[in-house]
Amino acid sequence: MSSYDPSNADPEGGGKPSFDKQPPQPGANGSPYNGKPSDPGDYQGSYGGPAPGGSPYGSYGGAPGGVPQGGPPQIAGMPPLGTWPSRILARLIDYVLIQVVAFAVTLPISGFDRNGWTEGVWVYYALYLVYDGVMLSRDGQTLGKKVMNVRVAMLSDGSRPNRQAAWTRAAVFTVPAVLCCGLWWLVDGMFGVFDKPYRQCIHDKAAKTVVVSTN
Q1: What is the C-alpha separation between 84 and 90, in angstroms, rounded?
Q2: At 71, phi and psi to the nearest 5?
Q3: What region holds the RDD domain (predicted)?
Q4: Environment class of residue 161 by beta-carbon count within 10 Å: exposed (0-12), middle (13-18) or buried (19+)?
Q5: Bridge-partner residues for 211, per DSSP?
Q6: Which of 16, 27, 44, 143 has the fewest C-beta atoms under 10 angstroms from its C-beta?
Q7: pLDDT, tens digit, 9 for 90 and up, residues 129-165
Q8: How far is CA 145 from CA 5, 20, 104, 190, 197, in A?
Q9: How many other C-beta atoms lie within 10 A of the C-beta of residue 146?
């Protein structure tokens, strides 16, 4: 007769249940499906972000071509526009220089005779026309403009004015003044004050030039 030993008896299902080993938990030692993306979020790029290398259209909100909003349009190679105080002082310096030369030329010939002063005015206009045309043809600067750090430039690209532009500018500034004296210079200057965006006087419009800073 066999004896029953309860210690050797197996429960239903065969043997004692063991809790020593736990089944692997997802995420503890990696996915059991290693090598396969488990989620669309595994894509390395950020959703909705810019493509590698940046956007071909630049930053949002910028003006086309990189032109800053407000102010005169920027032309390639164009320095900043010259200020009105610098332009006016440059003209005054040139005016005084030419007056001194014209006076020195006419005084020995006519003395202080009234007709001599009339001749002096004609000499002044002629000298100023030649002086302005020659100096601007060389480097776009008269002596007054050199002192005030401004120069004349072509509107198209900011380069030195060519011979035709230089002499056109000088002629339109000087010749009408012979007919209406200094009134023409007042009208010419006021035109530039209200001109947008390049502050061009009438002689600038005629020659397609602008006055820019050399600083």
Answers
A1: 10
A2: 80, 175
A3: 83-208
A4: buried
A5: 152
A6: 44
A7: 999 999 999 999 999 999 999 999 999 999 999 999 9
A8: 121, 95, 23, 19, 21
A9: 15
